[in-house]
Amino acid sequence: MAAQWTSYQPGPYANEHIRITPTKLADGRDFFYMDDDPAYVSGSKTRELKDPRPLDYRFAPHMDADGHELPYAAPMMRRDPLTGDWIPMATARMNRPITAGPGATATGNPLAARKPGDPYQDGEVPDSDYDVVIFENRFPSMVQVPGQSGEPTLVDGNPLWEQKPAAGRCEVICFDPDEQGLPADLPVSRLRTVVEAWAFRTAEISQMEGIEQIFPFENHGQEIGVSLAHPHGQVYCYPFIPPKMEQELRQSHAYHERTGGNLLKDIMEGELAAGERVVMRNASWIAYVPAAARWPLEVHVAPVRDLLTLDQLNDQERWDLAQMYSALLKRGNAFFDTGDGRGMDLPYIAAWHQAPVRDPRRANYRLNLQFFSFRRSPNKIKYLAGSESGMAAWVSDTTPELIAQRFHELGAVDIG
Amino acid sequence: MAAQWTSYQPGPYANEHIRITPTKLADGRDFFYMDDDPAYVSGSKTRELKDPRPLDYRFAPHMDADGHELPYAAPMMRRDPLTGDWIPMATARMNRPITAGPGATATGNPLAARKPGDPYQDGEVPDSDYDVVIFENRFPSMVQVPGQSGEPTLVDGNPLWEQKPAAGRCEVICFDPDEQGLPADLPVSRLRTVVEAWAFRTAEISQMEGIEQIFPFENHGQEIGVSLAHPHGQVYCYPFIPPKMEQELRQSHAYHERTGGNLLKDIMEGELAAGERVVMRNASWIAYVPAAARWPLEVHVAPVRDLLTLDQLNDQERWDLAQMYSALLKRGNAFFDTGDGRGMDLPYIAAWHQAPVRDPRRANYRLNLQFFSFRRSPNKIKYLAGSESGMAAWVSDTTPELIAQRFHELGAVDIG
């Protein structure tokens, strides 16, 4: 079975600690097993590669009520003339399953490992066990359809309203087969495999035509609308530079033009010099509450070394990141004092900002993780109301120094 | 009592239908009664002007634990070097009362009219009755402190991190003394007074030094974190151009440079020409679902006449806006089919985008209301998760045409 690993052209992300086994789901989507340990390769277990579900090819034409064949309706995106933003319009996602919370509609968990003999046919994982799996989202808001033209057209013939296929890519990364598991409770060795998944997908998707930004992220918690409780993250690959990256690229490019420096590096060094807001560090990574934090709990994590993208991490940096991510999630759960000392399952978003795929300003950017929570206290949430949603003007209910102070209470800064 | 009206220099917003009676609350904040009908002037009722609460002057110094006098701690704002955005840091707001929903902490409703003999002392309205009242927020995220320097300083001495006082202004507008009332159920004559309040505050606050953007808005619904159920709106007056306005000004300015035209006017005319997404109109206003709508329910309302700001509305436009706003709220509540035909209390944000106070690009802007809801269906909410909160990349779960189609089902386009 070693052939599966080596035959997958593992490239710069491969190493002796991880095994990658690719396959295709029944409808044609890409699927990858990532095993924590290559012992699987020489061990008794092989990965089940065949998806038993009788799914149609995902881009198959469909029949209308009169029996006419209609081509696959790809999601489109339109450019908002008032802001310049592209808005993917993901009508297909309206039918996606929800297994968490009061609006739950699905009858099973599609991220679970398949149980032998289980009649449930919507599971996405062919095997009855796994470590980490990655696959293309079945209900993508962006997808590249083979043979489909990416040329823009005009809505109602008006040049104000450009539209074109939302030719991006949406992938799901499952962190563990245990659907009740929390990412904060996973061993560092497993989080190391998750880091590997981020690096692997960044390396591979960067080679795909038309993708401008690769965005690995994790949404955690029903409070922010996570529709599947199973521990997982996502990778959104946009066929455009997303608005927040555009803002950051504009700022870091202007800073470079003005000073010759790298904005993100100078921010990190400024935080190290100030000291007060640095909350964790190890040999490869610095975690700090940014001096102008906008969320009630916000931590940015920057590599010590100058790096643009996740696939540039070396082996040590991958291990150190897994350790840092684990510590960050555990401290996040302990951040709000629940009175009983047990902490809480913190809702959070972990958002990887990395250099865009080909935008010429990429050289002045620098890899960073932006970790934040909407939670303001054990029983309060920050909502994005008029100021944030209507004017994109954030108002913080706390200060960066208060956030950092709480982290300092939770443990030593140096976790290396 | 007519003197109170005329002595208030009513300016361009005054007219024979509205009476404005100014006073000050016990802690020095501005307070205004706006009465639907000047009959009060000659009637038996006068407005109670005296706030009976023993409140300290709001900018009074306070004593620390050792009895030393500390100056009033004004809210500060810091500029995020990574985005260029100013972030007001409103630590004082952490103590604000919450009377709605499970996190409710307050013992009364500060927006209620005072009940004679009521021992509750936190009510903000001196009178036992009112139509509409406006007052400065007791827990503002931005405030102008008399005598306080607005000069920027540096956080930790680092030129990357500018900070200065968040010298803006936050006002509250109560729409009705009935704390159970819904804005959608108010008579058009009352909404006319609310329109008048928007115009009045825009006219007056435009004259205040240091205010760059006046943003009247309404947050409605516990689902979006509204902390007081009482029907009310707010006016945020920013000492900077908020990020979304900056984006819109950049786009409309570039459009003018390129074409000589006004972007917002051409968008409105494009929507009229296309027709499909126009959902309501009367003699003064056009309501349409924008061709690149990002929310599950989104309607923009534009004046027929070229106007920059709310205080430029003439008498007819104010009445027509009240009628349009009423119709919009009613259709919003009927939008999602609840199965029982009764509709729902839709959570929404109504955000007024008007020309900035003095930015030179203001002439190429045009007044518009952006009305939207987070609700996706009777039992689903759109959450702003990784893509929206982390990358500011909105993904729509529907299409503008589907939204417009539902509005068309709910009633005739021409409500004039």
TrEMBL record, chains A, B:
Name of protein: Galactose-1-phosphate uridylyltransferase
Which residue range or ranges hold the Galactose-1-phosphate uridyl transferase C-terminal domain?
249-360
Q: Which GO terms describe its biological process?
A: galactose catabolic process via UDP-galactose, Leloir pathway
**Alphabetic keyword roster:** Carbohydrate metabolism, Galactose metabolism, Metal-binding, Nucleotidyltransferase, Transferase, Zinc
GO molecular function, one example? UDP-glucose:hexose-1-phosphate uridylyltransferase activity
Please name the PANTHER family in this protein's record: GALACTOSE-1-PHOSPHATE URIDYLYLTRANSFERASE
Q: Which NCBIfam families match?
A: galT_1 (TIGR00209)
Q: What is its EC number?
A: 2.7.7.12
* Essential cofactor(s): Zn(2+)
> How is this protein annotated for GO cellular component?
cytoplasm
The kind of enzyme this is, by top-level EC class, is transferase
Family indicated by similarity? Belongs to the galactose-1-phosphate uridylyltransferase type 1 family.
Q: Where is the signal peptide?
A: none
Active site feature: 232
* Domain Galactose-1-phosphate uridyl transferase N-terminal: start-end pairs: 75-242
